[in-house]
Amino acid sequence: MIDKVIIAEDHESSNLSVQKILEELKIRQGDYVYYCDDALSRITMAQKAELPYDVLITDLYFEDDGSTQTLKDGYALIQAVRAIQPDIRILVFSGEDRPAVISRLYTAYEIDAYVRKARHDVKELKAS
C-alpha cells in the first residue's frame, strides 16, 4: 500500500495536478518540492526518522532559476535517492518522449514507472 509520496516538480501547474491525483487516490501524505535538493533532503530525513517515503514522483528536467542547487535534474536525484533508499518506488513524470532515453531510465536508473506529460497523462498517472 502506498501511504507517503514525495513529488519533485518545478512547474507549479504540474505539481498541483499530481497532488490532486494523490488526493483522489486517498494517499495519506503527499509532499511536494520544486527542487531536487529539497526532495533529497526530505527523503533523507524521513529515512533517518524511520518514516520513509513509499514513492518518489519526479520530473527529469528542472529549469535553472538562479537558486544554488547541487542536484540539477531528475537523473541526479534518482541516483542520489537510490543510494540512500534503494527500495523506494520511482515514477518519472516528464515530457521526454525519446524511446532510448525512457528505456535507459528503466535499465540504468531502475525506475518503476514512466508517465509522459501529454494529453492523457492523468489517466496514466492514476494507473501507474
Explain what you see.
The protein has a five-stranded parallel beta sheet with strand order 2-1-3-4-5, sandwiched between helices. The protein is globular and about 35 Å long. Strand 3, helix 3 and strand 4 form a beta-alpha-beta unit. By secondary structure, it is α/β, with parallel strands linked by helices.
Annotation keywords:
about 130 residues, alpha/beta, five-stranded parallel beta sheet, 5 helices, 5 strands
Record the SSE blueprint:
Blueprint: E1 4-8, H1 12-24, E2 29-33, H2 36-48, E3 55-58, H3 74-84, E4 89-94, H4 99-107, E5 113-116, H5 121-127
Parallel strand pairs: 1-2, 1-3, 3-4, 4-5
Q: Let me know the average pLDDT.
A: 88
Largest sheet: 5 strands, parallel
Q: Structural class, judged by helices and strands?
A: alpha/beta
Q: How far apart are the first and last residues' alpha carbons, in Å?
A: 13 Å
Percent strand: 15-25%
Helix and strand run: EHEHEHEHEH
What's the count of strands? 5
Principal-axes shape call:
globular
Determine Rg (CA atoms, Å): 14 Å
Care to give the gist of this entry?
With 128 residues, the chain is an alpha/beta fold. It contains five helices and five strands.
